[in-house]
Amino acid sequence: MNKPGPEGVPKRRNWVAPLAPDAAAAGQTAFVRAGFSDPSLVLHWDEIAGPETARLARPLRLSEGPSGGVLTLKAEPGAAVFLQHETRSLCERINSYLGRPAVARLKFVEGALAPRPKAPLRRSPLGSALPPSDPSQKYTGPDGLREALWKLARARRSRTNM
Q1: Residues spanned by the domain of 88
Q2: Which CATH number is 42's domain given?
Q3: How far is Cα 90 from Cα 88, in angstroms, rounded to an integer?
Q4: Count of domains observed in the chain
Q5: Residue 65, SS3 per DSSP
Q6: What's the confidence (pLDDT) of residue 57?
Q7: 106 with 48, same domain?
Q8: How far apart are CA 71 and CA 49, in angstroms?
Q9: One domain, residues 136 and 89
């Protein structure tokens, strides 16, 4: 059954616990399982490979071989042939980013890549000026309510300007 805790009260089971302490460990485990002891290669792939190459391929696995590391990239169908010609320069960019000769060759696996998430919409900063004709400019009540009205007017204005 339940064993008593330090105060003699049995520890409760099946309670919801904060996720944050376990999330880093779970993420690190997933990266290590794919062979990435350092996740920066995956996380900064766009910077390392360049926008055109990153659009066509993404890293799947890094494995150590007898002649050096082999980076497996998932590439769009048909792009593997194009990327095969860029292998040497891509390996050099990866190794210079990591600061060590980690990748000796590239292996391509064809498959459709998941669509990239769109960048979040940039909203206009809250400090943007409202036109003098805006009705919220004419309010003369308490300061807190006036600030809330101005914030609402800016939000309304940013949505209508999209």
Answers
A1: 32-110
A2: 3.30.300
A3: 5
A4: 2
A5: strand
A6: 94
A7: yes
A8: 13
A9: no
| Angstrom distance (rounded) from CA 162 to CA 121 | 10
- Residue 39: per-residue pLDDT: 85
108 sits in which H/E element: strand 105-110
Note whether residue 80 is domain-resident: yes
Residue 103: predicted pLDDT: 92
Q: 60: which 2 tokens?
A: 């799947």
CB 43 within 8 A of CB 79: no
β partners of residue 110: 75
Q: Is residue 61 in a domain?
A: yes
Per-residue model confidence as pLDDT tens for the chain (162 residues): 555 555 666 666 777 767 677 787 888 888 888 888 878 888 899 999 999 999 999 999 999 878 889 999 999 988 888 899 989 999 999 999 988 888 999 999 999 988 877 766 665 555 567 888 888 888 888 888 888 888 888 888 777 765
Instruction: Tell me: do 67 and 45 sit in the same domain.
Output: yes
CA atoms within 13 A on the CB side of 24: 2
Under a CB-based contact definition with an 8 Å cutoff, are residues 57 and 73 in contact?
yes
Per-residue CA distances from 162 to 120, 123, 133, 157 (Å):
13, 9, 20, 9
Domain membership flag for residue 141: yes
